[in-house]
Amino acid sequence: MFCTQCGAQNHPEDKFCAACGAQTGVAGQDNPTAGQSGHHLQFYAGLALRHGRPVAGQPIQPSQASQRTEQEQQRVDYNRSSGIDWYLWVLKKYAVFSGRAQRAEYWYFVLFNCLAIIGLVIIDSITGSFDDDAGIGLLSGLYYLGVLLPSLAVTVRRLHDTGRSGWWMLIALLPFLGGLILLFFTVQDSQPGGNQYGLNPKGVS
């Protein structure tokens, strides 16, 4: 059976759509008043989430329920156990410029990124593929090109986390002073609660 609101497929005996929470045809048969909710669909769950805790009788819009599920999953994803996990997490979000990145995500990526470049430069020097004039070797150059996009993306998300636009990253183009200002921005803690770029990645409400 397909949901009439979002088109998702549900079990024939389900009374509510698993994707959006709308009443299915079965619910409409059991409840003769189904379908009279008007233009804005609203359903009442027995338990609603408010700041991650259940509250009885709270009305929830289907879009809000889906958004809160994504928020909870995001908080789980950000619970990393080691620095390498953060590094791989940034690579996984290769070209994601939206959202927020807390300090641990950004700085662990910077740390492991620098270690990787240093290691590859050493290998380039040993194998003779390091170019003294260019200041970079074959392997280190390829790696640098490969991580350029995720490096820019995580910097933009880090600025978002402090409540700033990603365009502030361009301030690094200013000689010396610009880099210091960007450094100051990236070492700041997450903006409490949500902002225009998303939830606090630390799960702090």
Gist of the model:
The chain is built from 6 helices and 6 strands. With 205 residues, it is mostly helical. It has a domain at 79-186.
Task: Name a few traits of the molecule.
205 residues, mainly alpha, two-stranded antiparallel ribbon, elongated
What does this entry look like structurally?
The chain is mainly α and 205 residues long. It has a domain at 79-186. Helix content is 44%, strand content 8%. It contains 6 helices and 6 strands. The strands form 3 sheets. The protein has a two-stranded antiparallel ribbon. A two-stranded antiparallel sheet has the order 2-3. The chain starts with 24 loop residues before the first helix and ends in a 19-residue tail after the last helix.
**Shape, principal axes of CA atoms:** elongated
Order of helices and strands: HEEEEHHHEEHH
DSSP strand tally: 6
Rg calculated over all Cα atoms: 24 Å
Read across the widest sheet, the strand sequence of neighbours is 1-4
* Main pleated-sheet profile: 2 strands, antiparallel
Judged by helices, strands and strand pairing, the structural class is mainly alpha
> What portion of residues is helical?
40-55%
Oligomeric description of these chains: single chain
Average pLDDT for all residues: 77
